[in-house]
Design a protein that fits this description.
Distance between the termini: 63 Å
Number of helices: 13
Low-confidence stretches: none
Strand order of the largest sheet: 1-2-3-4-5-6-7-11
Mean pLDDT: 95
CATH class of one domain: Alpha Beta
Strand content: 25-35%
Structural class: alpha/beta
Helix content: 10-25%
CATH architecture of one domain: Alpha-Beta Barrel
């Protein structure tokens, strides 16, 4: 059996989770009722249980996120909640707070959230040794770093492949907490990274004015899936637990096709779930929310990873305005627009301007409110009405392949059904045998009746008929036998589904003897956990104790590099440092650690 390769999709709720499964997800991650890093995407235990039942039909898994840091008072509640999640049938728990490992846990598999800042071999190996079955790697890693981690550990490695990027190392951003009391580590990020800033030097000279200097483009590694697979990634994760159903359908379908094409003919790999998905639309990631696209640091550092003009979605390019009339305009490219489409462009000041299409007629585009872009303006479409109408309908169908054997017995007939994942059932039916009058249609009638699986999750791949002579079979009897055997297969597959258990921990020492506030320790159990693993001094987490004069953000994104001012590339600046980001009445000093190739943001000062 080859190594299992997984496409992992997000779900804000049960409806979106089911859509992800239908569109080919091998697993879905969803928020718990509380303590999820997306506080606005919590789900009831009942909904989680229903989603689990639906997913397991296809051997897809459900991972539940309890990936915030917790207080002492919250730990007993978290323990009860985890028990309920396990009893609901969930396959794994995604966690950040190490205090959870000290609770009385059911034997549920544990995944280390990307919030645990998983950037080094030493950290990943430690998490593996203390009982995590999977580690979600930091988004900032290069292919070479992923490969080195894979070669030196034996834990499953999960990596983000698509969606929004946090500019800070995950779990290492305290800007929202410091500025608004809304902790990113508790699922309430206020997204200060998406705001516009001025960049100033120490003399107060404005170097860059009113740009989104911390707002990263969205991740798109669709052309690098094969490389990531070779580097050791086994789970490809789509970001987006706050995204709508259309986004999840489109992006899941897009990556399902990508991964299937890569896995085809490779015996060393195997898809992690069952069933073949047929799509009734053409997936296109440019038609879903995206802030342009970047491969981030996967292939090394390069410029162009931010979208400085706007934190909003630009969408797909539709071409340049060639003609402007009294109440219409034309485009150079033959992109078909629809009434109600949303178009946008960047004006001369670099600001995003958007408008809607009122009518399209004979190549003339009539905008709503008679708003007319200037000639040579380059337009983007960030809302495609025709595509969205398609996504609102039935866009995919997923079927588990079965082989059926219809044979004759001494007392009647037997039907055997074997699913593509190895489940097998058979039923013997007592029946009189009567020679058919129309012998030439007997086998076709049997095949026809047992192919009618449209009201089930199955699809007949092969029907093998083994009878001595053409007997007469009423269509109603064959239909009844088909229903009975498929019901039996449903029951057998549900009974035979087996969850993986939590990895047994072994003796391990944490890579550091001293843990700063970056360890995010906010409860006594987490503190005890680290002490047990060799940490001698533990500073309380930022949220647990007001800390002054400590960096609020750590990031590989570097403003100087992005602007072409990197001293490692030989640039000699015409400004004096330190540099500052300013927004309204706040000023943030920037620290550049060129040895680590990192940038830090210090606490705000009032202007």
């Amino acid at each position: 059996m080859g190594k299992l390769i997984e496409l992992l999709s997000p779900a804000k709720n049960i409806e979106i989770g089911m859509a992800a499964i239908n569109h080919g997800a091998d697993a879905v991650y969803i928020g718990a009722p509380q303590f999820s890093a997306r506080a606005a995407a919590g789900n009831s235990i009942q909904d989680i249980a229903s989603l689990v039942k639906y997913a397991h039909q296809y051997r897809s898994e459900i991972f539940v996120a309890i990936n915030t840091i917790l207080t002492d008072a919250q730990l007993p509640q978290a323990e009860r909640l985890i028990r309920q999640i396990y009893e609901a049938g969930a396959d794994a728990l995604i966690v950040q707070d190490m205090g959870i490992l000290k609770l009385d846990l059911p034997p549920i598999e544990l995944h280390a959230s990307t919030q645990t800042d998983n950037r080094t071999i030493e950290k990943v190996k430690f998490l593996q040794d203390v009982g995590f079955s999977r580690v979600v790697l930091a988004r900032e890693l290069s292919l070479q770093q992923i490969k080195e981690i894979s070669l030196n550990t034996d834990v499953e490695l999960e990596a983000f492949v698509h969606g929004a990027l946090c500019v800070s190392y995950s779990g290492q951003c305290y800007m929202s907490e410091a500025m608004s009391g809304r902790s990113a580590n508790r699922g309430q990020c206020a997204q200060y990274c998406r705001l516009p800033y001025n960049l100033l030097d120490v003399d107060g000279r404005i170097l860059v004015k009113n740009k989104h200097l911390l707002s990263l483009k969205d991740l798109d590694l669709s052309e690098s899936v094969s490389e990531m697979l070779g580097a050791g990634i086994t789970s490809f994760k789509i970001e987006g637990r706050l995204k709508d159903i259309g986004y999840v359908k489109n992006i899941t379908a897009f990556y399902r096709r990508k991964i299937d094409a890569i896995l085809e003919g490779k015996s060393e790999y195997q898809r992690a779930s069952s069933g073949k998905t047929i799509f009734f639309f053409e997936p296109n990631p440019e038609k879903s929310f995206r802030r342009s696209a970047t491969d981030y640091f996967l292939h090394g550092r390069h410029k162009g990873i931010i979208q400085p003009e706007t934190p909003k979605s630009l969408g797909e390019s539709v071409g340049k305005v060639t003609t402007v009339g009294s109440d219409f305009f034309r485009l150079e490219q033959g992109v078909e627009l629809s009434n109600g489409d949303g178009l946008c462009f960047l004006n001369k000041s670099g600001e995003l301007v958007g408008f809607r299409v009122n009518k399209v007629e004979s190549g003339k585009i009539y905008p709503a409110d008679r708003f007319l872009p200037e000639k040579n303006t380059f337009l983007y479409r960030n809302q495609d009405q025709a595509f969205e109408r398609i996504l609102r309908g039935k866009t995919a169908e997923r079927r588990v392949g079965v082989n059926i054997v219809f044979s004759e017995s001494m007392t009647g007939f037997q039907v055997k059904m074997i699913s593509e994942d190895g489940s097998e059932v058979s039923l013997d039916f007592l029946s009189e045998k009567q020679t058919a009058q129309k012998v030439e249609v007997v086998e076709n009638n049997i095949r026809n009746q047992f192919s009618k699986l449209g009201n089930t999750i199955y699809e007949a791949q092969n029907i093998d008929i083994q009878i001595r002579q053409p007997w007469f079979f009423p269509a109603s009897r064959l239909a009844e036998w088909r229903r009975e055997i498929t019901d039996l297969l449903d029951a057998e597959r549900a009974k035979s589904y087996s969850r993986k258990s939590r990895r047994l921990p072994i003796q391990a020492s944490f890579p550091q003897k001293n843990l700063t506030y970056l360890g995010n320790v906010t409860n006594k159990l987490a503190s005890g956990f680290y002490h047990e693993h060799g940490v001698e001094h533990i500073q309380p987490g930022f949220e647990a104790k007001a800390l002054a004069d400590v960096p609020l953000m750590f990031t590989r994104h570097c403003v100087k590099n992005e602007m072409g001012w990197c001293p490692r590339e030989g640039h000699k600046p015409n400004f004096r440092e330190p540099l500052y980001l300013t927004h309204k009445g706040s000023r943030f000093e920037l620290i550049f650690d060129c040895k680590k190739c990192e940038m830090q943001i210090l606490p705000a000062q009032k202007l």
